[in-house]
Amino acid sequence: MTRRLKILHIVVAGQIGGAERFLADLAARPTSSNADHTLALLTPNRNLTAFFRHDGVTVHDRGDVHENPFAYLWRSYGPADIAWLGRVIERERPDILHCHTYGSHVLAARAALRFALPLVRTEHGVRHYRDPTCGLNRHWALKHTTKIVAVSAFVGRIVAAIEPAMTERICVIHNGIDLTRFAPEPPPAHGPFTVAAVARLEPVKRLEIAIAALAQMPEVQLDIVGDGAERHKLETLAQHSGASGRVRFHGHLADPRSVIAAADAVINCTREEALSLSILEAGAMQRPAIAIGQGGIPEAVVDGHTGWLTKEDGAAAFTATLRQAAADRAEVVRRGIAARDWVAANFAVEAMCEAYGAVYRSLVPGE
Hints:
The structure is a single chain. The relative contact order is 0.13. Helix 5 packs across helix 6 (105-115), helix 10 (207-215) packs across helix 15 and helix 13 packs across helix 16. The longest helix is centred in the last third of the chain and has 18 residues, at 329-346. By secondary structure, the chain is α/β, with parallel strands linked by helices. The chain contains 17 helices and 13 strands. It has helices at residues 18-27, 30-33, 46-54, 69-77, 80-92, 105-115, 127-130, 138-143, 153-162, 207-215, 231-240, 257-261, 277-284, 297-300, 315-326, 329-346, 349-362; strands at residues 5-12, 35-43, 58-64, 96-99, 119-123, 147-150, 170-172, 193-198, 220-225, 247-251, 265-268, 289-292, 307-310. The chain is globular. A seven-stranded parallel sheet has the order 3-2-1-4-5-6-7, sandwiched between helices.
């Protein structure tokens, strides 16, 4: 058995989302990846620190930091955070650095150069590639990244199209699901047809589309798990559309399984979702997905087999698809069973960890 490599993950984040949940799963399985994982975390959110530590991840916490454009520039190009990160590296002596969020890209590349370490970068989405304000030094940071892991083929294509010189450095590793934790649950036997959405409440998630659909379907109920800047706007929209009694906001839940189990299906209204952990987690629990068939969603959902995908974008197409699913609960159950089989065959967390382990080992000569 070769020795375990030491990986230092670098995360700059303010909320608990898919990238953070993915990292907790990876770091908690050193045997599957044949690597020991520690985390250098810069966050204004104490709950995020507690989230990682709860899963047994060793966290080097920068302490209270700010998250705004000025703080990003200072963190990326100033002396203070690179000095702090340098001290963490000197203490941990990692074999590889691994960054995950847009705010960490430049900082991690500077550290990799300073300490002559390989740098892995997981691309969890494409929004910062679409936003021209995020282009500052993007090419420089990518140039000094040794390996780029895309969480879906969709993400890989976008990165390659915008930065063609990086194409040979890109590989795809789908996010994995803990199939024991997200075990099959029988669907609700009674009550209204219920759909659940598990997401950060921000504009890119477009949950206003789901609320608009519910306004046309008084027999359907929506449970929303998550928090964020859009919550008040969505609550107001639900009230004004006449759907407030059928839209329930649960806020952030460390464990969303009870809400998923109480639903018949899950929904996703994002146009360019990278992959969707929430869809895969629900699929593992035998809940099919109703989603817009764009971005990386078709890699997570087999239309007509493990869920329903709209052929067109927008509220009208989503409403029609939701109505089709709600009209045949027996088919919902059948597609939920198929979703569990699909996730188990293609998105097991152990396989994901092993794939990252292979990437790490390829970057360390002689290991």
